[in-house]
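PROTEIN SPECIFICATION:
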Amino acid sequence: MTDERPAVATTPSSQSALHHQHLDQFATFLNTSERILAAWDAYSDQHTDPDGWPYDDDAYGRRASRRDADTALAFEPVREGAHQLLATAEVQLTVLPARAVQNRWVWQLGVLHDALDRLDSLHDVWLKTLDSLPADARPGTEVFDDTLAVHHAEAWACLDDWAAHDHAIQDIHSAAQHTPSVLAPTPATTPAPVPGRRSPARK
């Protein structure tokens, strides 16, 4: 006896519901990332000299690592829908009337695509790195935590791009909602998730 389950049909209404769910998740990420960045900026202003050099390099580095990790954690719930949202926004953009399109949207979607591709690549590197760690390397051990901190630091700039530019996805969606002829397309297939954010060089 085979364990075959019937395929679940995807209806336009279920596609729309999934798209709105992803938009809500992104809105949550935006709010969270803004709070994380505001807290980091406040810390950086208080712990650097007028030229931007930290008073305590070790403490500053640990605080930056916490920023990176917090941002990566905030992005995880939305990673699965990131490719789908980009695909939807790109299709909506091609069918919106010219009067409803902002010139910056094409460039912003390009930035988001590049950042997401980089995150996917970093995820592949992270998986290979995990395989190369000693067998006893687990969360909480120095070797694991240090390696994860490096991964988060590398991913932070990409996540910062998403925090800075994913308003374009929301704006395109809003414009599409006000254009009755524009329908949300079927979301694209989503690749595997990634851990990962703003440039560590930022003050």
About this structure: Residues 1-10, 182-203 have pLDDT under 50 and may be disordered. The longest helix spans residues 57-95. The chain has five helices and no strands. Helices lie at 12-46, 57-95, 104-132, 142-165, 167-177.
